[in-house]
Amino acid sequence: MLSNHFVQVAEELGIKVKQVTDTIELLDEGATIPFISRYRKEVTGSLDEVQVAAIRDRIQQLRDLEKRKEAILKSIQEQGKLTPELEKKILAAETMSLLEDLYLPYKPKRRTKATIAREKGLEPLASKIFEQIPFDLESEAALYIDTEKEVNSTEEALQGARDIIAEWVNENVELRKKMRDLFIKEGQFVSKVIPGKEEEAIKYKDYFDWTEPVKSAPSHRVLAMRRGEKELFLMLDTCPDEISAIALMEKEILQNAANSSVEQVKFAIKDCYKRLLKPSMETEVRLFTKKKADEEAIKVFADNLRQLLLAAPLGEKSVLALDPGFRTGCKTVCLGPQGQLLSYDAIYPNEPQKRTAEAGATIRHLVEKHHVEAIAIGNGTASRETETFVKSLGLPKNVIVTMVNESGASIYSASDVAREEFPDHDLTIRGAVSIGRRLMDPLAELVKIDPKSIGVGQYQHDVDQGALKNSLDDTVMSCVNGVGVEVNTASKQLLTYVSGLGPVLAQNIVSYREENGPFKSRSEIRKVPRLGEKAFEQAAGFLRIRNAKNPLDASAVHPERYEMVEKMAKDIGAKVADLMTSEEFRSKIILKNYVSETVGLPTLQDIMAELSKPGRDPRESFEVFNFQDGVNEMKDLKVGMKLPGIITNITKFGAFVDIGVHQDGLVHLSHLADKFVTDPATVVSVNQKVQVTVMEVDISRKRIALSMKSDPIAAKGTFSPKEKPEEKKKKEVEVDGDLAAKLALLKGRFR
């Protein structure tokens, strides 16, 4: 990697060149982002996970650019057309688009109109015309009439010359750069319904006759229009005003006052725009806006996923889990504190069987037999009815009854992971187990499910799937390592995301554990087959062993620093365990005394912070949530009702809230707060408990509009006097309640 790229990345990210080079070196050696940001702060200058990931991604882009330069130089060299000046331009190209523009004249082409014209010997005529000096056009063109070459008239000769000129204009690097800027800055998305498909495409009605600037179109609308086009409901154009585009081209290409040659060049310019440059630029703009929309959508998805994965765990409790239903009954399982399946059954407290007495007796018996501390009820079909039934049983007050978001549970139950865990049980039992375990530890259970099936995100099936997977994998790895993993109870799937492990080593750890019993120390992990020193270095700090002989094995202190901690304890006449239980002992430690060439204050401060709360789960404490009693279906809703709810998903246009009626409602961007909000993620988070007001209910179309404003009725349609006119206009569009509902439909969040 060239050193000037290190400088470039450092400038772009606002950090030092040494931070970039040292981080790249760690990454190239196989270090993971969680390990680098947590245990190599002295090397990177305390870069966090976001900065390390940014360095990794940007360097990869630049490496890809270098590879493409090498391939292009080789191709032009083989053609015998590589000049020192061209080589210099190619090597200096900073973007892939500029690089491809430089390569365009030399890129192997299929047989084009210009190619055919050259075969007819018309290039000299094109060259003379392109000089734009006055001469007798007809007489000159007549010299190229050749029936054997199928040039039968002066007009055919001139047409061929114009075809060649059009290709030259299209390959003009400077013009392409200016045209690209024009398309991005002044281009318009113009969406229209395909005639005759108005009824079939009703969910895209907002885009039947829609125009907005390319430069400011939000990601969710870009993706919605593209989806409508892909489904053959919409026609989508992304071009600037044609007159402006051609005027820019003429300004760049035309050199002399009007004459017959200039007129021919003008014809060629118009032909170039319509036939070559416009389609090329439109493709580029589509790719550019798609990439930008993808990045925004992926970020929304990753942020939502992080919040969902880090939801408060109930912890190691005995749990009874119910996967509710009507005709098929409620699948019931009891789980031990480590999530092990103790028993399973089916009860029928709801219609049509309505065997409430029998179902109640079963629940009471299971609660007593397994010392159940919490009851988890999936929030799907018959959930509120089942919740009401369970709460009516008069169970001990210490038994928690709570709803659990079951999105993705059915995906898990049919997966290879579930079949491997429960080969002797059917899908329904596996689904109920997943619901119960999700209450106990959302992170440990959700890692078993493809993140795209969890129910958060925005147009996740429309974005770049490779980029989405990489981002979600980063997010899951960050969450898993941020919380830490108990190596003696963790599933193979959870261990897979631990820094330095992966599927093979995760399976080897589980196999070793099954054959040899629980790990007694971190050092014993080295005995796992194929787990070498590098993998141990990367993983050890994130693996926990409770009740180990060395208390540090249950903490986030890395084994490479055990000796230092032991020295700290010895220096003040204490034991390591004393440092982990006594603030008095910790306060005696003078950190600067332990600074060395490899260990600085950042690491020492992390160690002290960990000693003060060794192995403590960083997630919030679990709080029981209850929906409004008596509000179980959409028909129970009334405009003006104030209800408790849980945010299930966040998009760029608002947040979806579960209010317990089997249908998420939408709090539009304009109703998330009393203040003007541009990004929902700045005011709400997934799993947040909120109070909402019902604004609109449309049962036929399954749409619920909600508000989180303190006085939503009075605030509806009002704007801050400080808003700029263009902001007010934009907000007026966004506030449209019908638009909000339709956007909700487009989002596809309805169960």
How would you describe the overall organization of this protein?
- The structure is a single chain.
- A hairpin with a 2-residue loop joins strand 11 (642-651) and strand 12.
- The protein is built from 32 helices and 15 strands.
- Among the domains are: 3-106, Arc Repressor Mutant, subunit A (Orthogonal Bundle); 188-237, no CATH class; 319-440, YqgF/RNase H-like domain (Nucleotidyltransferase, domain 5); 496-612, Tex RuvX-like domain-like (DNA polymerase, domain 1, Orthogonal Bundle); 634-747, Beta Barrel (OB fold (Dihydrolipoamide Acetyltransferase, E2P)), CATH 2.40.50.
- Residues 717-751 have low confidence and may be disordered.
- The protein has 751 residues and is an alpha/beta fold.
- The chain has a five-stranded mixed β-sheet, with helices on both faces. It has a five-stranded mixed β-barrel with strand order 11-12-13-15-14.
- It is 48% helix and 11% strand.
Could you outline the blueprint of secondary structure elements for this entry?
Elements: H1 3-13, H2 17-28, H3 33-39, H4 41-44, H5 49-78, H6 84-92, H7 96-103, H8 113-119, H9 123-130, H10 137-142, H11 154-170, H12 173-186, E1 188-193, E2 209-213, H13 219-230, E3 234-237, H14 242-253, H15 260-309, E4 319-323, E5 330-335, E6 341-347, H16 356-369, E7 374-378, H17 383-391, E8 400-404, H18 409-413, H19 416-421, H20 427-440, H21 442-446, H22 465-483, E9 485-486, H23 492-496, H24 503-516, H25 533-539, E10 543-544, H26 562-571, H27 576-579, H28 583-586, H29 601-612, E11 642-651, E12 654-658, E13 665-668, E14 689-698, E15 703-707, H30 712-715, H31 725-735, H32 737-747
Parallel strand pairs: 4-7, 7-8, 9-10, 13-15
Antiparallel strand pairs: 1-2, 1-3, 4-5, 5-6, 11-12, 11-14, 12-13, 14-15
Region (Disordered): 714-733
Biased composition (Basic and acidic residues): 721-733
GO molecular function: mRNA binding; structural constituent of ribosome
